[in-house]
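Let us practice reading a record.
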Amino acid sequence: MEYPKFKVCVNSMTFNQAKYITDTLDGFVMQQTNFPFICIIIDDASTDDEPEIIRKYVETNFDLLTSSTSYEIDNDDSVVLYSQHNTNKNCYFVVYFLKENHYSKNRSKRPYLAEWRKICDYEAICEGDDYWTDPLKLQKQADFLDANPQCSLTYHACKNVFSTPCKVNILYGECVKESYSDIDILTIYPFQTATVMYRKDILDSDLYKKAQAIGCTAGDQILFLTASRLGTIEGVNEKMSVYRRHEGGISQHMHDADKLWKNFKDWQKVALLFGGNIRKKINKDKLGVYMYSAFTSRKYILFFKMLRLSMFKNPYSIVFSFILSSSYYYHRLFK
């Protein structure tokens, strides 16, 4: 099939978000652009009603009768559904209904994105529990990147919505500055993933490919760090999306012993790959936070494994973890 010249592809990974996915899809189809864009929706073998909700949404709102703009293919590992919106003719969906959960088997979902990434200029991200609220989000960000060739990644502000009580109630990305550095990305998590748009060149770079090969769970931070090395990171303090906070989100399940240990080792490799001030910042702070998490959650065997690995490679992380731990117990005892 001959596809339109898509300017933007939207990367939307989702799993068991039946309660929220319709908001996400509505945010896609509301986009008003002067260019075609393709939304790549990958359902990772959800066990709730999400696959049925997505299929019904497409059947209701998209043209599945015109063979030149739609198809459905049943492959060994997925069912693929491609179609054009009934009224928003610049909006196309391609949905991958995966037949087995790739996350649990440590299988990458990047191959499903590859076909579409290579025919687009820019990429945006929105997972199945977040959603966009500004119908001009894609147009504004694509225009910004067109007009600012020095910028590799752009972002905007977002609204935090707590759908369920969360252990961490910090507001992320509700107010953003005009630009950020690589150190900012590691220190303050300045903007949320559903707010970004970036150049495809980042994904094609050797640095990003090497970083991805490490397998670090924090793929968004790896992407942002790579962008900071290849150009500037600039944005606008305008709220155009909602960051939904709930215990079912991916970021809420990263503190068990195996994942802490994997993250710790992966970030050591990331530090070596990027070098310079990024390496210093990771060694000093980020690895220390993982050690602190292991210690304060009473995973003492894990803590001493980290301690032994850090003894010669990154001693600053040991110092930082002890400072955090001392502060933690001081406040528990005396506050």
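A brief commentary: The first strand starts at residue 8 and ends at 14.
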